[in-house]
Amino acid sequence: MDSKESCPYVMTGQIHTSSTGGWLRTTVGSCISVCLYDNRLKQGGMNHFILSRSPDGDNSDRYGNNSIVHMIEKLRQEGSNRSDLTARIIGVGTSITISGTDSAGSRNIKVAESVLQEESIRVVERHTGGCHGRKIFFNTGTGQVEATALNDCLASCKFKGSSCKNRLTAPVAD
Questions:
Q1: What would the pLDDT profile of 92-126 be if each residue is shown by its tens digit?
Q2: Is residue 45 part of a domain?
Q3: 77 or 60: whose pLDDT is higher?
Q4: Does 46 map to a domain?
Q5: Domain limits at 69?
Q6: Which of 44, 90, 110, 171, CA to CA, is 20 to 30 A from 68?
Q7: Is 44 exposed, middle or buried (0-12, 13-18, 19+ CB in 10 A)?
Q8: H helix or E strand, kind and range, residue 139
Q9: pLDDT tens per residue across span 127-156
């Protein structure tokens, strides 16, 4: 699929992988999207999760700890080796904060980094933090990621004066 605007949209709690190439897209606020790419097989996947860690017994892909592992498993079923996968983490670090705790976005970033480290997957790019949501496009055949910061920052965002990159284009590192 060549048109980015008409490519499959990855909804919250979903994973999409492809061994045939093409664009995937999603939009995140405090959610996180992890894009995995296999440079050897030229295939990849994208997830979109809203919560960091699942309670015992909940296997839903709404949770980062499940979603990332399930995406790795799907890519392995399509022939990828864990050692061939690289990751990009895209998402926001601020959102509703409960008195004295990390925000949901910060917890999501931490769980993505933790699970990828546990799974021995190298993170080659991060586009996280701040208060702007991001519109994300990922090409599963080339590993290219384009993340555009949305300009609808909440008035209460404590990072209001921070400098968010307007656009990130991340080629796959060899």
A1: 756 555 445 667 778 888 999 999 999 999 999 98
A2: yes
A3: 77
A4: yes
A5: 14-170
A6: 171
A7: buried
A8: strand 134-139
A9: 887 777 889 999 999 999 998 888 754 333
Does some domain include residue 5? no
DSSP 19-71: SS--EEEEEESSSEEEEEEETTTTEEEEEEBSBSSPPTT---TTBHHHHHHHH
pLDDT digits (tens, 9 = 90+) for 36-45: 999 999 999 9
CATH code at 63? Answer: 3.30.1330.200
Burial category of 27 from C-beta neighbours within 10 Å (exposed 0-12, middle 13-18, buried 19 and up): middle
> Rounded to whole angstroms, how far apart are CA atoms 43 and 125?
17
Count of domains for the chain: 1
Q: What is the pTM of this model?
A: 0.82
